[in-house]
Write a structure and sequence with these properties.
Layout (H helix, E strand, L loop, with lengths): L4 H5 L8 E2 L2 E2 L1 E2 L10 H13 L9 H21 L6 E4 L2 H13 L7 E5 L8 H4 L7 E5 L1 E2 L4 E2 L1 H7 L4 E7 L11 H6 L6 E5 L11 H4 L3 E5 L9 E5 L1 H4 L25 H15 L10 H27 L4 E4 L10 E6 L4 H9 L3 E2 L1 E3 L4 H7 L6 E5 L6 H12 L3
Length: 404
């Protein structure tokens, strides 16, 4: 698939924004991408044409049910799952807290949970909280040199009493990709594998079956959708998950973990975001699994080619240090870096004043950034999305270079 960047960019109204007379440059995608017109239209359509709660014998309520079913099907197509294995929630963090509390009912004091130093706190905090209930929580270290997960340490950390392993598929701070299928092989057969796919999903084809994970979490606003969380649960675990729920709530998956009224317009927007990923050039292509995978691979190829220019450019600027993996290993198009003598906030303010949007700090990957000890203010983070251009990368590099 040939990547038509003009066709892609034409779908994103936000890209017309200007700052100080210059086009805005969105390198803040790891914190949330911009949304295409079809997502905006889906939100308006739901709120104007179908806005109602579930279960009513009237047209808007019936349309709401259809939209929820369509959202589950779209998310399942994205993840390689079945619709009944897909649940929605306020965000990934809230869903993961609900999941951890539910799994607690299947654990006994002294059972072990493995987390990692690479992870976002949303995949650490919910499991660390279970230590108060008698669970032993152990964290797998990273290699600070390349930001990779130390799989040898993981193998030595796991024991026959390890019941849950919570692992990221990709680091939102460094772009490190973790071989989750390899992690699975290092775990006991009865260990539940929970994968944080928030940063992974916008950049890589997702196949929860190939990962052999039991739960997978992601956030639609990271892949061109609205603010809503998505949870995949393997059927055999979802069916016996003991969740917190109210008496009227359905006791069947995935409803059993979906508390209260869902974000219906967010579900509509999620379906539209998946449709964009399947047809990023708006050719009228219908949503199907193979077509979506082809599109995501084309998106990945474009991003990776652009990222090589970004990485090589940053690498060549004196005083800039890129933290994390190089270009010789699988990674996402996200770079965490520091500029000698400058704290991270100063750098992103310098970029922001010229309309280049980037993030600074720890990005909720607090343990990781603390282990890297990059200096004052943490890291500067820039990440590519399929709507970014080579010209934008060159603007960024010129602006960073002007600081040193």
């Amino acid at each position: 698939m040939k990547w038509d960047i003009d066709a892609v960019r034409s779908q994103f109204p936000a890209l017309k924004m200007q700052v100080g007379g210059e086009p805005a440059v969105f390198f803040d995608g790891p914190g949330g991408t911009q949304v295409p017109r079809r997502v905006l239209d889906s939100l308006e359509h739901y709120l104007v044409r179908a806005n109602a709660n579930r279960g009513g014998p009237f047209v808007t309520s019936e349309k709401t049910e259809e939209i929820i079913e369509g959202g589950r099907l779209a998310a399942a197509t994205l993840l390689g799952a079945s619709p009944e294995e897909v649940a929605f929630g306020a965000n990934m963090t809230t869903l993961n807290y609900s999941l951890s509390r539910a799994l607690l009912r299947h654990l006994n004091p002294g059972d072990e949970i493995v987390i990692t130093d690479l992870d976002h706190e949303a995949n650490r905090g919910p499991w660390l909280a279970l230590s108060e209930m008698g669970m032993e929580v152990r964290s797998v270290r990273i290699d600070p040199g390349d930001g990779s997960l130390d799989l040898e340490h993981l193998a030595s950390t796991v024991t026959p009493r390890t019941r849950v392993a919570a692992i990221t598929a990709a680091s939102n701070a460094l772009g490190t990709i973790v071989d989750t299928a390899k992690v699975r092989r290092l775990l006991p057969d009865d260990c539940i594998l929970v994968v944080d796919g928030v940063h992974f999903t916008p950049h890589e084809p997702v196949d929860v079956r190939a990962m052999d994970c039991d739960f997978f979490l992601c956030s639609a606003y990271k892949f061109f959708g609205p603010h809503i969380g998505v949870l995949y649960g393997r059927s055999r675990f979802f069916e016996r998950l003991e969740t917190d729920r109210l008496r009227p709530q359905k006791d069947s998956p995935p409803d059993r973990i979906e508390t209260g009224t869902l974000n219906h317009e967010g579900i509509a927007g999620t379906a539209a975001a998946v449709a964009f990923m399947a047809d990023p050039m708006a050719t009228g292509r219908s949503l199907d699994r193979q077509g979506l995978l082809d599109s995501v691979r084309a998106m990945k190829s474009y991003e990776n080619e652009l990222f090589e220019t970004l990485y090589r450019g940053l690498e060549s600027i004196p005083g800039v240090t890129i933290h994390g993996p190089g270009l010789d290993v699988p990674r996402t198009p996200t770079a965490g870096f520091t500029v000698e003598g400058k704290d991270a906030r100063t750098v992103v303010e310098h970029l922001g004043h010229s309309g280049i949007f980037a993030w600074d700090g720890h990005f909720y990957a607090m343990t990781l950034v603390e282990k890297l000890a990059p200096g004052p203010g943490g890291l500067v983070r820039v990440g590519l999305a399929p709507y970014n251009t080579r010209g934008e990368v060159e603007r960024l590099l010129q602006r960073v270079e002007s600081m040193v």
